[in-house]
Design brief:
It contains six helices and five strands. It is of the alpha/beta class.
C-alpha cells in the first residue's frame, strides 16, 4: 500500500521526520510531497525544501519525495496513493484536519485519510515556531534535522 504525506515542510521539522519514519514502517512506499501553495511566501524555495527532505530521509527505503500544486487528492491519484497521511499535534489540529479529510473523501472516496499522533517530544513543533526561533537567533538543532538547522542559520545570517 502506498501513502502520501503532503505538506509545505517550510522547514522540515523533527516532528515531520518522526512521522515519515513511522509511516515508512507501516506502508510499502511513502511519497512525501511538498505543496506549492501560491497564497504563501515560503522561507525556503521549493527545490531547497525538496533537497532538505531527500537528505533527511535518505536512510529510509521506500520513501520518495515530490512536489505538487492543486488538490491533494488529485496528486494522491497521480502517484497511486491509497492513503493520505496527516499528523496531529493537538486537539486544535483535529478540527481542521477532519474537515479537510471529509472534503477529500467527497472528492476521492477511494483515498483514505489516516491521522497519526505526533510523538510527545515533538508535539510543540511547527514550522512557523521553528522559523520564529531561528529568526531571533535561538538554537533549533533539537527541532530540525542538521542540514535544515544549517540552512536556517544561513537564511537568518547567523553563519553555519
Amino acid at each position: 500500500m502506498r501513502a502520501l504525506y503532503p505538506g509545505s515542510f517550510d522547514p522540515l521539522t523533527l516532528g515531520h521526520l518522526d512521522l515519515i519514519e513511522r509511516s515508512a514502517r507501516l506502508f510499502d512506499s511513502l511519497e512525501v510531497a511538498v505543496l506549492q501553495n501560491p497564497s504563501k511566501i515560503p522561507a525556503f524555495p521549493l527545490e531547497q525544501r525538496l533537497e532538505q527532505i531527500r537528505l533527511a530521509t535518505a536512510h529510509l527505503p521506500g520513501v520518495s519525495v515530490g512536489s505538487f500544486d492543486g488538490l491533494t487528492v488529485e496528486y494522491a491519484r497521480h502517484c497511486n496513493a491509497q492513503v493520505i497521511l496527516r499528523g496531529l499535534r493537538a486537539l486544535s489540529d483535529f478540527e481542521f484536519e477532519l474537515q479537510i479529510a471529509h472534503t477529500n473523501h467527497s472528492l476521492a472516496p477511494l483515498v483514505e485519510t489516516l491521522f497519526l499522533a505526533t510523538s510527545v517530544q515533538h508535539s510543540f513543533l511547527s514550522s512557523s515556531v521553528v522559523r520564529e526561533v531561528a529568526r531571533f537567533g535561538g538554537d533549533v538543532r533539537h527541532m530540525v534535522p542538521p542540514g535544515v538547522a544549517e540552512d536556517l542559520s544561513r537564511l537568518f545570517n547567523r553563519g553555519s
